[in-house]
Prior knowledge:
The protein is of the alpha+beta class and 83 residues long. It is 16% helix and 30% strand.
Amino acid sequence: MVVGTCELCDVKGPLRLKDLRAKARKLNRLASQITGPMHYRDHTYAWVLRRAKRLRKPVPYDHPRGAVIWVSLDAAVGRKIGL
């Protein structure tokens, strides 16, 4: 389900452990909770978003096998979410 839209306006990183601790609040964590190596520690980036908005009603879409982060939406779904 597509539950909202936003613009990706910047990418920060790669981030070091001290960078992650400094931004712990944005990760919904305490700095003390970010202690050891992270799974993608050498390749941890922050996506900077703007104009984020929640849709009034989630819109279903066909999720392709193997897609993890990026998905191309068909035109009908794009119209329903206002793209």
